[in-house]
Every structure is written in C-alpha cells, then in structure tokens.
Amino acid sequence: MRSDIELQERLERLESQSAIRALVHEYCHGADKRDRARFAAVWTPDAVWQVAPTQEFRGVQAICAAVEWQRGAFLQMHHWTSNLVIDLDGDQARGEVDVGVTTQFPDGTWLRGGGVYRDSYTRTDVGWRISRREAEHLFDLNPGPAADGDACGMPRP
To answer: I want to staple 131 with a disulfide (CB 3.0 to 4.6 A). Which of 37, 44, 68, 83 is the partner?
Structure first.
C-alpha cells in the first residue's frame, strides 16, 4: 500500500506536468491570437527566448517585442505543438516539444515549417513558467500560393 507521502508526490508530479502542458499551449495561443498578456504570462521575468543559434531575447519585454515584430511580418501565424516530454526535478523541469508552424506573408503566400523547442521551466509563486526556450528550426516546405479566399479556400465576403 502506498503511503500518503508517496500519493502526495505522485499528485504533485501529475499537477506539475499538467500545468507545464498548459503553459506550452498558452505560448501558441498567445502568439497566434496576438494576445500580448497571454503570451507574456508564460515567461519568467528574466526568461531567455533563443530563436536561432546566434539570436536570443532576454526578459519578457524583449521577448514580447520580438513576437510583435513577427506578427507585423506575417498576416497569420499558427503553431501546433506535439510530443511533449517533461523531466521534472523539484521546482525545475526540462521539456522537449515538436512544433509545426504555418505563416501567411503579406502577399498572401503561405509557408509551413517545423522544428523543436527545448525548454527549461521554473515553478514560481504564480505557477510554472518558461525560463528558457531554444527553438531549433528543422525544415520549411515550399511556399504555397496565395488563396483567393481565406486559409480554408472559402471565398471572402
């Protein structure tokens, strides 16, 4: 029979994993829905977002400014994450998650790409937050043509 302490530890681990999964999804929702507050809420104040081997942004303000620049460069962005693996260690955790990204350029063309995020998470007074995200860009597919309608090909009103 398991002790109360063992059950408490298991429950805490499951709650932490669930909170980190939600955090990974909130990152996508905040970026794609152009919701600055939602996007900012996933980071620790001193977080680092490494978008390329030689380019990183430090602190929530710089990270939010970078994603706002991206929003200005694309008409639409859509992120999908999957295959999240989490390694918990007390109030710290590491994660790896695959990401697919579809973007629409101002001329209407679409580009689809993918990669992986390697994350560090920290439990704070307000819950789990991303303290470091390293993005590794793995591939792009050839740009698709501009659609006469919306992203699903439906005519615009």
So the answer is: 44
